[in-house]
Amino acid sequence: MKNLTFPNPVKREFYYKQYDESLKHWNIEIETLYIETTFGKTHVIACGPKDAQPVVLLHGMTVSSTMWFANAPVWSQSYRIYAIDTIGDFGKSECIRPVTTRPELNSWLNEVLDALNIEVFYLIGHSMGGWIALQFSLQSDRVKKLVLLAPVMSLSGLNWRFPFKLLPATLLKNSYSIRKLYEWMFAKQNTPSPLLYKQFLAGYKLGKIQLKVAPTVMKEAELKGLRPETLVLIGEEEVIYSSVQKAIKRADEAPNMTVHLIPACSHCLPAEQSYMVNDLVNQFLAER
Questions:
Q1: Does domain 9-286 sit in CATH 3.40.50.1820?
Q2: What gap in Å lies between CA 268 and CA 266, rounded to an integer?
Q3: Which of 55, 58, 212, 216 could form a disulfide with 122 if both were Cys (CB 3.0 to 4.6 A apart)?
Q4: Rounded CA gap, 204 and 74, in Å?
Q5: d(Cα 202, Cα 181) in Å, to the nearest integer?
Q6: Across the 288 residues of the chain, what is the mean pLDDT of every consecutive 10-residue run?
Q7: The three-state (H, E, C) secondary structure of the chain, written as one string
Q8: Which residues form the AB hydrolase-1 domain (predicted)?
Q9: Number of Cβ atoms within 10 Å of the Cβ of 263
Q10: Spans of all domains in the chain
């Protein structure tokens, strides 16, 4: 079956080379797995002790699992890490059928977890991966603890500037627009990784997103009904939300959510403030 995300084999191989270069950032021993699902083969990066508690990582839209380069090497000292390339998004997963609904998205993730023999686990998601993790946790008993890193929508609507950054990059596919989108998601004082940018650029220029599920702002009843204990981390200079204050207030009001504002960073906080993010996540997961 054709890989719909990267249908051209030459372009796909070029993107995969950029992916592999980005993955060198991890600088630890890893395993790579392919899981057969209804929607195509799902690529998973695994690391850490095989007998340790499992932690599943869901990346932000268009950045793939390579984005965890500053986090997975730290968390894998205590946990078995499974970084999943979301099907239909840029990455090494091979989508053969677009994902168009939340039930399909959850069905895909359950298929991956079943194949990995993961029953109960800690779940960490960034941006779109945070929204996927949150909505999955609302209907699943498998999530022991949940960590949301700047989850897109979820707690507040989008900043009106976001479409004006995203649409030129996705429609025009020119280097200038893609670079502006990439840099916009970092605080001005923080320098994005040139290596990851090359992969980001290749994805936008060569790939076709097949994840057709739009994130939403969660209702009050949903947030109040969230069962897993949840840690929410948001950058002080976050640009995705229409209101950072509203997002924090809504997280504060949810009974099972604890929220922290992370200084000197924006949307890409796992890389921008990796030491603080890593410490807060490790502390949260270790608490009884």
A1: yes
A2: 6
A3: 55
A4: 29
A5: 14
A6: 95 98 96 98 98 98 98 98 98 98 98 98 98 98 98 97 94 96 96 94 98 97 97 98 96 97 98 98 95
A7: CCCCCCCCHHHHHHHHHHHHHHHHHHCCCCEEEEEEECCEEEEEEEECCCCCCEEEEECCCCCCHHHHHHCHHHHCCCCEEEEECCCCCCCCCEECCCECCHHHHHHHHHHHHHHCCCCCEEEEEECHHHHHHHHHHCCCCCEEEEEEECCCCECCCECCCHHHHHHHHHHHCCHHHHHHHHHHCCCCCCCCCHHHHHHHHHHHHHCCCCECCCCCECCHHHHHCCCCEEEEEEECCCCCECCHHHHHHHHHHCCCEEEEEECCCCCCHHHHCHHHHHHHHHHHHHCC
A8: 54-171
A9: 12
A10: 9-286
**Predicted structure pTM score:** 0.98
Instruction: Report which of 77, 72, 91 is spatially closest to residue 20, judged by C-alpha positions.
Output: 91
Query: How many C-beta neighbours within 10 Å does residue 50 have?
Result: 9
Q: In terms of Cα–Cα distance, which of 117, 70, 115, 63 is closest to 85?
A: 63
Beta carbons within 10 angstroms of residue 229's beta carbon: 16
Phi and psi of 108, rounded to 5°? -60, -50
Active site residue: 25, 59, 126, 267, which one?
Answer: 267
Contact 228, 143 (CB under 8 A): yes
Rounded CA-CA distance 221/68 in Å is: 31
Q: Tell me the C-alpha distance between 195 and 268, whole Å.
A: 15
Both tokens of 40, joined, read 């195509």
- Token pair for residue 146? 């949940």
Residue 267 annotated among the catalytic residues of the structure: yes
**Using CA of residue 134, residue 139, residue 140, residue 141, what is the dihedral sign?**
positive
Q: Are 271 and 69 in contact (CB under 8 A)?
A: yes
